[in-house]
Amino acid sequence: MRELFQLTVLAYGAATITYLVYFFSRNKRVRGGARGLLLGAGVLHTFYIIARYLAAGHTPIASNHEAVSFFAWSLAWGFLSFRWRYQVKNFGAFVSPLITLLMVIAALSSQHIVELPPALQSYWLPIHASIAILANGFMALAFCGGVMYLLQEREIKKKHFGLFYSRLPSLEALDHLNQHCLAIGFPLLTLGIVTGSIWAKQAWGAYWQWDPKETWSLITWFIYAAIIHQRLTVGWRRRRAAIMAIVGFSAVLFTLWGVNFLLGGVHSYAG
């Protein structure tokens, strides 16, 4: 199983390198190879998650290694599903390095299979945790789109049409990308919080305990709710939306890691 994970990391790394080669060379054959490598890595990753599930006897999402690995898997398949419907020039050159970085972090974490405490031995584990991490995957896509937007806007404003101008989509296309990712990610984030509350009621007798991760999940939800509200009412788009997508994803990362290692709590993987 460890060898399968290592092969998956290598496949994602190869896809990232190939996407970056395409970014600079703009050779369409290289782009096709990058897509194939990422798809192959996603398939290998799926097999790894299934193998770990069979070995652990529960959904492999209970440790830092498993959570980050599943985050990377969600981001990869979110991107692949997005690519089948939309054309966003060189999106893969920004998404694939983030996937590979997550996989490296997962590789550096302990891969020991942990035994679930009684409170986590519930059918709510795969429901709540998978929905929440899938939401993170789409927020990560919005983050990548936000970074691309700011890079493109910078060159346009300075009238310095260099490396990024001809290689990135239009500002309008990137703003639409941001909106699409939030339209999928925010309902998933909401559903993740709702299912977590229902599970908490069954496990601990209360819908909400103000555990650090619960609190930061709510803060993250309010950030994205504000972004969507401002989009619909005030017309926040383009630069502001791009910046807020980056801010929101920073909150996602703190909820995933910062809470675990700085604040602890019943949701922490740090122990």
Walk me through the structure:
Helix content is 77%, strand content 0%. It is an all-alpha fold and 271 residues long. It has two domains: 1-116; 118-271, no CATH class. The longest helix has 35 residues, at 124-158. It starts with a helix and ends in an 8-residue tail after the last helix. The mean pLDDT is 86.
Give me some keywords for this one.
single chain; 271 residues; mainly alpha; 2 domains; 8 helices; 77% helix
Q: List the helices and strands in order.
A: HHHHHHHH
Q: What proportion of the residues form beta strands (DSSP E)?
A: under 5%
Biggest sheet architecture: none
Q: Compute the gyration radius: what is it?
A: 19 Å
Give the overall silhouette.
globular
In short:
The chain has 271 residues and is mainly α.
Strand and helix map with partners:
Layout: H1 2-25, H2 28-56, H3 64-85, H4 92-108, H5 124-158, H6 171-204, H7 212-233, H8 238-263
Helix pairs in contact: 1-2, 1-4, 2-3, 3-4, 3-5, 5-6, 5-8, 6-7, 6-8, 7-8
